[in-house]
Amino acid sequence: ENVIQPQPGIMDIQLYQGGASHAEGVSDVVKLSSNENPFGPSDAVKEAVRKSVHELHRYPSIDHLSLRRAIAQVHKLDADRIICGVGSDEIISFLCNAYAGPGDEVIHTEHGFAMYRISTLAAGATPVEVPERERTVDVDAILDACCFRTKLVFIANPANPTGTMIGGNEVARLADGLPPQTLLVLDGAYAEYVDGFDGGASLVDSRDNVIMTRTFSKLYGLGGLRIGWGYGPAPVIDVLNRVRGPFNLSQTQLVAAEAAIRDRGYAERCRAENARLRTWLAEALAGLGVPSDTSCANFVLARFSDQDEAEACEAYLRSRGLLVRKVAGYKLPNCLRITVGDESACRRVVHAVGEFREVR
Ligand code: PMP
What we know:
Elements: E1 30-31, H1 43-52, H2 65-75, E2 82-85, H3 87-99, E3 105-109, H4 114-122, E4 126-130, H5 139-145, E5 150-156, H6 168-177, E6 183-187, H7 201-206, E7 210-215, E8 228-231, H8 234-243, H9 251-262, H10 264-287, E9 299-303, H11 307-319, E10 322-323, E11 325-326, E12 335-339, H12 343-359
Parallel strand pairs: 1-10, 3-4, 3-5, 5-6, 6-7
Antiparallel strand pairs: 2-8, 7-8, 9-12, 11-12
Helix pairs in contact: 1-9, 2-9, 3-4, 5-6, 10-12
The structure holds 4'-deoxy-4'-aminopyridoxal-5'-phosphate.
């Protein structure tokens, strides 16, 4: 018996299942399994990254001031209440480490993003899973699950992998119904895809129990560089900064993110193209007998009749070089999550799903 043991809860963590990135024996592969921007980062970002190599011997900014000011300017926020991290994953981790420990509960919903549970267990706290209704966050079910032990509630709006979202009034009702010791985390990883949506920033400004997280991994095409941020009440941001490592973001990450958020034209073009192709993809799949809920993000959750059919379709698509995501781990065994790629990728998916439906 090994006496060197991890903290309780650690061995309950299921390793994060990332999206497939290669298909055996197929060369022309399109990755539609991780909700990445098919167009990549803008030219301005690539130029900023190239320039940053001349500064690699310097430690990066400790306080991320320049990036925080750029984010604040674009989103009309208070730069002092922004914190930046290694993807929004790191902000989620800071929240769990700072606010939840042994004996505390952290709520996530039935189909909620996997990192909520992983970071909760890593912090020694207890994850509590709350049912959804029709693959959509159910505010009443969350409020019913809250108790004096509840420290954090995570919801994503829009949500991954369902693509659904709840309205501002519902989010406000959730924030206002929480126990006094509970912080609501609004995960806005896909907020940029919703025209005119502030990700919950106005709710953050009018409450002291709400924080919003955002990312550069999706619309800005920077999943590979790992940059995210949070916007919350000053006391919460102060707490998170205490658990943040001083040099958590490299200078390359910082300048890339700043160039990305300043390039509004590129972001808007990516958003519009995603919206156009998402509608086209969802309608074409529905025409083939594969329905989906209306997606507010950069992917479509395609519903098959059962797990067998979903898995067979995933394998068929993979054999054609099209990598999509199985989501059985998210309690959606009959579904496949398909990232909205560029036009050619969307056409290939529809063509291959059509072939699959014919042979089956
Ligand atoms: N939240 C949600 C809902 C996500 O889907 C993702 C990415 N899969 C993240 C957070 C984390 O994104 P990142 O760490 O790349 O910012």
